[in-house]
Amino acid sequence: MSRVDEFISAAERSNTRRSYASAVQHFEVEWKGFLPATSEAVARYLADYASSLSNNTLRQRLAALSRWHTDQGFADPTKAPVVRKVLKGIRAVHPALEKRARPLELEQLQQVDTWLERAIEAARHRDDQPHLLRYTRDRALILFGFWRGFRSDELIRLKLENMQLSPGEGLTCYLERSKTDRNYVGREFKCPALSRLCPVTALNEWVNLAELHTGPVFRRIDRWGHLGQESLVSTSVIPILRNLFTSVGLASAQEYSSHSLRRGFANWARASGWDIKDLMAYVGWKDIKSAMRYLDASDTALQARFEKGLETLAPAASVASEAVAKASHQPSESGSEAFAVSQTAIIDVTMTLARFNKHSRGLTRGRRLIEQICFERYAMQRQDTEGTRYGLTVPFTSREQLGDDLYALLDDMYRIADDNQCMLEVSFHEPLTGSHWD
Question: Rounded to two decimals, what is the model's pTM?
Fold first, then answer.
């Protein structure tokens, strides 16, 4: 292989090369297709596997065929309208709910960590070096994977020489590349030391126990407790987590994957009040669509939203209490309510969204995201067809809380506009009081 071929090969992820080669082989060998292919042949290929392969797999096969034709200098048949229409029809006839890993909640993380701490102590007490190494490594892997929100391939790519570990303070690590780093520029990540469930302490204990100085942080350990020089492979992380969660006694352990750590942290951060922009910057998401795929509304949070709206029924509940009190000849204390009465504010929104320049293409997407993420939760009413005036119904328990909520809403709107290369001018007006927010 020449130096030029070597660099061309290095420009593409090895997993991508293997995946594309397998897809092309499936088209040629399994389906008996001919290359270069016609758009009609590709359409028939999709139709033949519409019921047996997932939509994501079919799209991956198309990407592989597209790459092969481009690399070989042929016209790309996958871009033909007939191919796109067939793929769209398959999605309509064979809809599939996207499978997502079950998020590891903070309480479950604490349960796993407690079990591991006891297992580590028991292994140390009986001088069981294989289990001591394995449990200590797994504890560092899980705590760091959760609090840093790393994917499995990012965890296994960590190297000691690219990490600065300061017990009690935090750590800084550098990754030469990651899934979204298409240009291989690398990025530095930070993680703080914590008072509980500390990833820095867990990593320090693992590094000291294994006497690591250079090379991969998370390595293979064989059945006899021999520590390998090579890192874990990304496909080994899921079995490690599921076996551990089964031992701990977590329900539905097989529903967890390496993404469970990332999703669990994202849900915890959002529930703890993190701004979505800060969360995206910390985890490394490039666009809000990717971030929203990881964020779930828990059953408790969903119930709380409904109950917040039902608080407007407090006066009726108070009337009912007074009726009961009168029936039983007991005086009612109207001044001692069990909870604060919620009110609603009718807010008029005036919004102008414009492109940064003529090359910006995120105007429609930005407006759609603002409506979906910022307005729909407040019973949005469009006041014109241009999308410049809206009506919102915003519940609040105090004027101060109303102002805080509206300013947070403005922050989200400006962030979405900026992410989509748009300029935003917006103001909120409450006609009843004459109040303005902008």
Answer: 0.58
Instruction: Name the residue among 237, 228, 230 with its Cα closest to residue 155.
Output: 237
* CATH code at 3-93: 1.10.150.130
Among all chains, which residue has been given the structure tokens 């397998």? 22
CA distance 229 to 267: 35
CATH class held by domain 106-293 = mainly alpha
Answer whether residue 166 shows pLDDT above 50.
Answer: yes
Q: pLDDT-derived band of residue 331, with 50, 70 and 90 as boundaries?
A: very low
Q: Pick 297 or 6 by higher pLDDT.
A: 6
Confidence category of residue 420, pLDDT binned at 50, 70, 90: confident
And the tokens for 425? 């001018």
- CA atoms of 141 and 215, how far apart (whole Å): 16
Residue type at 133?
L
CATH code given to domain 343-437: 3.30.70.1130
Structure token pair of residue 389: 């005036």
Distance CA 394, CA 343 (A): 8
Cβ atoms of 371 and 380 closer than 8 Å: yes
